[in-house]
Amino acid sequence: MRASFPISAAVLLATWILASSGSPRLHASSLPNPSEVIPGGETLVYEVRWDPPAWLFFIPTISAGELTLKFEEREDDRGRRLFRITADAVSAGILPRLTGITVKDHFESLVAAEGFCSNRFTKITREGRRHRDVVLTFDQESHRGRYLAYDAGQTPPRELKNEELEDLPPCVQDFLSAIYRTRLRGLQVGENYPLHVSDNGVVKEVDIRAVRSERVEALAGTWSTTRIDTVSVGGLFKGGGRFVLWFSDDRARVPVKYEAQVKFGKLFGTIKHMEGAAAKAVDRPAAKAKPPAGKPPP
Question: With 0-12 CB in 10 A as exposed, 13-18 as middle and 19+ as buried, what is 180?
Fold first, then answer.
């Protein structure tokens, strides 16, 4: 029997969340300049693992794949500054062999530099035989948007949804921009604030809470972090679930770990490689010394 374990929901990092209320200009004044916190071209790579539910106690935690996040600064066709955030989730290891399902998902968020509000979100999921393309667009001034969904497994792709979104909250976010907006917010332990995120055309209000300081061990090093919990009626994901993030305790606030409760168990990712990131681990793994030429390693 095959079961679906949506790695994409874990990014998601998703499923890594949300935006506070008020006008875009008011939002902008409450956030630092993103370019001062997140270097352009920053790339974060995570090892993803699956922890089975309690009733599958005989199965250990196993590898599930890899997730890559990228942050870039660009301009739109009118010359206005925007940020492009992408996430790529690819299955690997034991889990896809157990389920018979391979995953290759791509997500893209285009965020206006002023106010850090989402303009467009694209989700391309390839999970086994299920191929779906989703496009969400947001007009932050009119509080309207559009939700398009296609079955990309058919030729030509078959339209599944074409819905107009109305009465959107101010500065609504997609789940990728929400992660980075929460990162910019830099919550201290004990602080919380409400956010709104739209996924699949549905807007959810989520309470973001900085609950405690924790040390996180990962392949990229050991980190001093702030744990961020999310609380939402009905859960962040389809069928419920919760999402937890750990941000580094420095100005860069790099998300070094995440955990997503899914239908069967939970998925979690820890950072294993960084390019262009400004954060510094408390303790980085020492590089292995190369043996002298002609001598085998010990």
Answer: buried
